[in-house]
Every structure is written in C-alpha cells, then in structure tokens.
Write a structure and sequence with these properties.
By secondary structure, the protein is α/β, with parallel strands linked by helices. 43% of the residues lie in helices and 24% in strands. It is built from 8 helices and 12 strands.
C-alpha cells in the first residue's frame, strides 16, 4: 500500500480527503494539520507522495515543500491552494512541485492526479531505455526518447506533447485512454482549452500513422481514445 502525507489545516477537508483516498484510492494517508507537524512526520517516515496545502499556520506549504526538496529531491509533491494566480503556480513548480490543484476541487480529480503522477514516476523508474521508450505500432517504430516515428527510411519528428500522447496510447494499447487521464498526465489540467489542444495533437498523430490501415486511433464516446493495432 502506497503511503501519502497530507498536510491540510482545514480539519473537515483534511479528514474528508483522508477518508476518501484511503477508501477509494486504497492509500495509507497520514494527515497533519500544519507545516511544522508535516515536516516532523516526513522526517520520521517514508512517503510515496505528498499533498501540501499552501496557506497554513506555523509553516506554509511552499516553505515546507522547499525544505522537503532539500532532503528528498524525488518524492512527488502536489500543492493545493485557493490561489489561482499564474505567479503562484510558477512558484509551486519552481520549488520542485510536480503538480498543482486549485481549491475548490473535486476529490475525484485529485485522485486522478495522484494516480497519473504515481504512474509516471513508477514508469520513469522502470524505464531502462528500451522497455517503455520503444514501441512497435503496426509497420511503424516509435522511439519516445528521440520523439521519432519511423517507417522504413522515412522519419517523422514529433513534438514533445505529441510524443507524450502517443506513448500513453501505446502503453494502453487496445484499452481506453480517458481524456482526463491524458490531460492530467501531460498538461496537468483537464480544462477546455487544454482539451482542444490535445485534439489537435491527436489529429496530427493520426496523420503520421495513416499509411498503415491496420493502425487506428478511435474515439470512445464520452470516455476517451483507444489505439487499435489489428492483425
């Protein structure tokens, strides 16, 4: 069972998140009510992910995150705050945050972000260069690291977002990749404008793979997309 440190000064919200993540996400969640308590908990145990409220007494979330980053540069951190200014988001990522969620938020969205972040971290840890970087897509070869789709002698260079999206589709070949999962994993926000942007990238990817009739990316109505490779 993965262990999460949740630092939230609102006792009602904190207990609600703790109960939901333990029940639905099946995580072991340690709840702390302020930054100082959170720091003490972090030094006494090992956690797979941190959720830090920004506006807290005694020690704010940004200060706590900065201190934790000095001790552990890799543990995933999600900052949660009522502030929606771009300066706050910039500060969160500059301090080493991996994601940022603005209050009020749906608990379901937080769980999606947690799962997407942990999946990405685990995949990066397993990736030795071949296992999760090279894919065979019909007659095409896709190298995620170099961001190239190869068809014989023809090479198609992909943008970073195109490569990330195609990789997610490959990892879930013949399964549904939900729109929310893709948006939160790549854009870290499933808003309307990012959704429209993703649709454009998806159209380009379809064009790159169009010369193999056995390969198709279909829309699954109301859910997302599926990469099909027919024999």
């Amino acid at each position: 069972m993965m262990k999460i440190l949740l630092v939230e000064d609102d006792p009602n919200l904190g207990m609600l998140l703790q109960d939901y993540l333990q029940l639905k996400g099946k995580f072991d969640v340690v709840l702390c009510k302020d930054g100082e308590e959170g720091l003490k908990a972090f030094t006494k145990s090992t956690f797979d992910l941190l959720i830090l409220d920004v506006m807290m007494p005694k020690k704010d979330g940004f200060t706590l995150g900065k201190e934790i980053r000095k001790m552990n540069p890799k543990v995933p951190i999600i900052f949660a705050t009522a502030k929606a200014m771009i300066e706050d988001k910039t500060q969160a990522f500059n301090l080493g945050g991996d994601d940022y969620i603005t209050k009020p938020f749906r608990i379901e969205e937080l769980l999606l972000r947690i799962n997407a972040l942990l999946k990405r971290v685990n995949e990066n840890g397993k990736d030795s260069g071949e296992t999760l970087s090279h894919f065979k897509i019909g007659k095409y070869e896709f190298d995620y690291t170099s961001q190239i789709v190869k068809d014989g002698e023809h090479l198609q260079k992909l943008s970073t977002k195109e490569a990330e999206l195609l990789r997610l589709l490959c990892l879930k070949q013949n399964e549904v990749l939900t729109r929310e999962e893709a948006l939160l994993s790549i854009w870290h926000d499933d808003n309307y404008f990012n959704g429209r942007s993703m649709d454009v990238f998806l159209s380009k990817i379809r064009k790159y793979l169009k010369d193999d009739p056995k390969v198709e990316i279909i829309n699954v109505h109301g859910k997302g997309y599926k990469l099909l490779i027919n024999s």
